[in-house]
Amino acid sequence: NELRIRLRNFVTTWNRLEKKNPSPQLLQVYQSYGDIFPKDVEMHFWAGQIAQTKQLYEDAARSFAKAADLAQAELKSGKSHLDQPTLERLLAGSLLGEVEVAEATKKSSLKVAAYNHYLTLLPQGARAGDIRYQIAHTLYEDGQHREAAEQFRRLALDARVSNPKLGEKSADLA
User: Fold this and answer.
1) Fewest beta carbons less than 10 Å away: which of 85, 108, 125, 156?
2) Helices 57-77 & 108-121, crossing angle to 10 degrees?
3) What is the DSSP letter of 162?
C-alpha cells in the first residue's frame, strides 16, 4: 500500500508538471499504474484525459470506460475512499468523456458502444435523451433506416424526453 501511494504521488506530481502538454511517457506511466493497481478510479479517469489531450481517442475511451465501471462498482458496494458525490461525478464525467472521444474517432461501432455504456450505467442520466438520439442518428447514418426510424419514433413518444426540440426533431426524422 505504501508503494502504491508513493507511485501514485509520483505520477500525479509529474502530471502537474506537464499539465498543459503531457508527454507520451506520462500516459504510459498512467497506463502502467492502471495495470498494476487496476482499481484506482481517479487514475483511470486522468489517464483518459491525457489520452484525449494527446488525441489517442481509443486509448482514452478504454480508460474512461474502465473508470466508469470502477466508479459504478464502488457506488454499489459502498466501499471506497472517495465520497459518493465524487464517485457520481467521476461516473458521469467518465461516461461523457468516453462518448466524446468515441465521437471523435468517427467510428460507428465505438460510438454506439460508448452510447450503450452510458445508458447501461446511467439510464436516467442528464444526457440520456441526447444519447438515445445519437444512437438513432448513428443508425441512420449507417443506413439502418428501419431501426433508426423505430428508435426516433420511440424517442419522440418518450415522455421522459427532457428537451422538447429533441422530441420534435426525432419525430421529423422518424
Assistant:
1) 85
2) 10
3) S
Q: How far is it, in rounded angstroms, from Cα 124 to Cα 88?
A: 13
Q: How far is CA 128 from CA 1, 44, 55, 65, 172, in A?
A: 38, 23, 25, 17, 20
Instruction: Give the model confidence (pLDDT) of 64-119 as tens digits.
Output: 999 999 999 999 998 888 889 999 999 999 999 999 999 999 999 999 999 999 99
As a whole number of angstroms, the distance between CA 117 and CA 91 comes to 11
Q: Are 97 and 57 in contact (CB under 8 A)?
A: no
Distance, CA of 64 to CA of 15 (rounded, Å): 17
* pLDDT digit string, tens, across residues 21-72: 999 999 999 999 999 999 999 999 999 999 999 999 999 999 999 999 999 9
As given in the structure block, the three cell numbers for residue 66 are: 474502465
Residue 13 CA to residue 6 CA, distance in Å, equals 10
CB 102 within 8 A of CB 57: yes
What distance in Å separates the CA atoms of residue 166 and residue 169, rounded to the nearest whole number? 5
Q: Is the pLDDT of residue 162 over 80?
A: no
